[in-house]
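Researcher: I'm comparing several assemblies side by side, and this is the next one on my list. It has 683 residues spread over two chains. Same procedure as the others: predict the full complex and return the structure.
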Amino acid sequence: MSELLIALVGIPTLIAMVNFAAPLILASLGGLFCERSGIVNIALEGVMTVGAFFAIVGSVVTGSWVGGLLLAIVAGVAFSALHAVATVTLRADQIITGTALILIAAGLVNFLYATMYGAQGTPSDVSRPANIGGINLLALVAFLAVGVTYFIVFNTPWGLRLRSVGEHPRAADTVGINVYAMRYQAVLISGMLAGLAGAVVSFNVGSYTENMIAGRGFIALAALVFGKWHPVGVLGACLLFGWSLAIETRLGGVDFIPSFVATSGLLSALPYVITLVALAGFVGRSVAPAAVGKPYAKH
Amino acid sequence: MSSAERIEATLVPIFSVLAAMAIGMLLIGAIGYDPFYAYTSLLKGAVGSTTAIGSTLLRAAPIILTGLSVMVAFRAGMFNIGGTGQAIAGLVVGGVVGIHFAGLPSAVHWPLALVAAAFMGGLWGALAGFLKVSRGANEVVVTIMLNYVAIKVGEALLNLGGPLQEQGSTIPASPEFAQSARLPVLWRPDPFTEVHMGVVVALLAALVVWFVIDRTALGFQIRAVGLAPDAARYGGMSVTKVTIIAMFAAGALAGLGGAVQTLGELDRLQKSELGVIQIGFAGIAVSLLGRNTALGCVLGGLLLGALDSGAVGIQNDNALPAGVGTKLILIIQGLIVFFVGADLLFRRLAQNVAGAAGGGGHAPPLPPTTLAVQPALDEEVTEA
């Protein structure tokens, strides 16, 4: 019994939870900025993939993980610019564009990966950020980002404009707010945060491999809904999802858990099942920004 | 639709494909390889021989089906990104039927397996539909989550020691399918390429889907719910029921797609196959290319099947480094979806071309994309 408790909530599990949650938090906050302005960004998964790859490339090329981090951010912003142009200027359907970008990201990143690193994979001694007490440095950045996001979105004039554009763009426009500019800024910020999130994932492992993001971008999106589009809610949701990722490999050999469940890989479905339960609204209704998902045309 | 509008509607996908291919050429050049050699290899692999044509048909069949799946859901106002999960759910059940029931005659066994696969895929799709209409859960994230659940559960079932894994074997795979369960082979352009019944199944499915959507009362309801749910509700239709039926149909088509690929080409269910199934996303590209029509899905499926087949041609000719060809095709697919979605980019161009061809007319201002689906992440569920 105590084995089960340790596996579920012991210190190693909690540390892993925080480390797994960090990229989810960053990506989800990116989604928050974006959706608060009225743009759905389901391409977070794709931007994370871009960030994960370029973080390693940058780290190898510059010899420092800071360089990798910066490259990941730049790449994330550049990639999400495509989403911004398509959804804000060309008024394309945001879900279709997002899906396209996920495909393009997977194709482009793995295209570059196969061309640059071929069969041997990325180098093995890549510079990575340090751990403090087991917790990754970047996880602390993620927690900081929660506070900063809260402050910016709810305590600054910019944040107020952002939210108004997401709730009622026509009214915001009439008052003189540039809806297009606000939305561009929001999408680019989400690109920066999602690129950063991808970097956290690849730095955690120390290399880039295909499919390493494994749906985390979508889990981040679910965390956004679960967290009711609020930074603190997002933090809680991401910790829960991070926990489900952390216990995946920790239940082998523990009493009460049938060995088939622990070793077959069935537990790896847990994060996604929890997300489904969360989305099915068993934790109360959540209300999106009113104008989210609809293209805006000034006339 | 006027003839100018019709021309315009077909031109946008064509421009999108051309633009995507052009960007592909730039990428190939950027990494230092010869784009023309790569593209001729692509063509050879796609249609350059009877083997190539056979391969194109084989690759087209499953994605025509997943394309139809996305199309049916789109018509009902839902975005089905869950094709992968529905295909996996379907192919696992279809595979199990194919392994057991070995005593059945051939003419019964494989159709039964396909029906079972369609049913299971349908349930997987209906689940997403149910969560959407009853709990307001956004179907985009739900279907994506269900994709991963299907992959993980399937892998767990086929893992060493799992219930579906073959006893006494060292690989994580199921026992072989019974011979009577494998899809009959229709054409063998070369000893290694077997064009199977799945192609016929896909074409038949397209016919059935067209008929149901265009010519039956149910199809009318689906279209009404997709275009104007409030009006449909006012007219007495049950939006919840129609949505769930549409998602069941969509899931069934995807399940069929998965089974067609598995029972047609493989000997058994393999854990390693599950994580790399691309037909779900390819279906999205197919449906968008085909402007959400059944005929469009067939043509789009053939085009994308040709691209996939062409990637093998690139590989064979070493026109690009190993494995890069398939990634290039993925980029091109994504770009096609991007350009069709952001169709404003090409619609002006298409309008001008169509106007010139259709006898010149004025160019009306362009509203936002004609493909608007736009589910909000949270929707009011108000069913009287």
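Model: For your comparison table: Chain B touches chain A through 62 residues (CB under 8 Å).
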